[in-house]
Each structure stands twice: as C-alpha cells, then as structure tokens.
Amino acid sequence: TEKEFSSYIRAFKEDNENDALMPVTDYIDDEKPLYVKTDSNLHITGFLDEATPDIRYVSGGIYGLNGQALSLFRQAMTEGLSRMRNFQRLMIGSGLRVKAYPFSKIIDVDHESDIWKAEDLLV
Predict the structure, then answer these.
(1) What are the phi and psi torsion angles at 3 (to 5°)?
(2) Pair type for strands 20-25 and 64-65
(3) Which of 1, 47, 54, 91 is least surrounded, with the fewest CB atoms within 10 Å of its CB?
(4) Strand, helix or coil at 28?
(5) What pTM was estimated for this model as a whole?
(6) Strands 57-59 and 20-25
(7) From residue 87, how far is each of 20, 54, 114 by CA, in Å?
(8) Are β-strands 35-38 and 57-59 bridged in parallel, bridged antiparallel, or unpaired?
(9) What are the residue boundaries of the structural domains of the chain, listed by start?
C-alpha cells in the first residue's frame, strides 16, 4: 500500500546501519520467486532460488541501496552478472549489511494479468 511504501522510504532514508534495505513479502505470486533467508533481526543472510522450511519471505523487487551497495555495480558488470538476484547475492558475499523490510503484499508485474492484480491491490 501507499502507507507501507512511504514508511519504507522513510526507514531507508533514516537507516545509517545497513547498506541496503530490501522490501520482502510472505505473499508469493511469482513464476520464479527469489527466497530471502533472514536472521531473527531481519538481516538478510542469503538469496535462494529454492524455498526451505526456515524461509518466510521472497524478494519484493524494490531496492534501497546506499553508496556502498551501489559501488558494487561496476564489479557486477566486470563479472558479467546479468540478473538482479545475482547482484543481491554479491552484496551478501561481499559482506554488506543487507536488511529485509516486510511488506504485506507486493505484486511482481511480469504479465498483463499481473497489472490487474496490482490494480486490485490499490483499490
């Protein structure tokens, strides 16, 4: 919702501890979800292609990145990383502090029918 997104933007702007603040959701409606492994404080410890019993969230496809995280893009391009999920893994592998920010529902818009789902969410 707009309220959730506004709260997320505010939290990102005020966050001086983490290099990235990544929206996540436990609502899974995606062809290839990226599962997000977190610790008890919502620090992200891994991004996985397959679900495991201890994983509650999937990536929301929204990325709040500080300068430290953004500086990894050059390395990602040099290494030929072609998908955002691989960049997310690079952040974890590089020791950046990446934290999850739970949303109630995020719709991944890949198909026309997803637009209708997203519009229904906004009503």
Answers:
(1) -65, -45
(2) antiparallel
(3) 54
(4) coil
(5) 0.85
(6) antiparallel
(7) 12, 23, 25
(8) antiparallel
(9) 2-122
Amino acid sitting at position 16: N
| Structure-block tokens of residue 81 | 């990383």
- For residue 76, give the 3-state DSSP assignment: helix
Please report where in the chains the tokens 């960049």 appear, as a residue: 87
Q: Which parts of 15-82 fold into alpha helices (H)?
A: 67-70, 72-78
The token pair at 49 is 């292609």
Is 1:14 a contact under the CB 8 Å cutoff? no
pLDDT tens track, the chain, 123 positions:
789 999 999 999 999 999 999 999 998 876 788 999 999 999 999 999 999 999 999 999 899 999 999 999 999 999 999 889 999 999 999 999 999 999 998 766 665 655 656 666 666
Quickly tell me which residue has 């603040």 as its tokens.
21
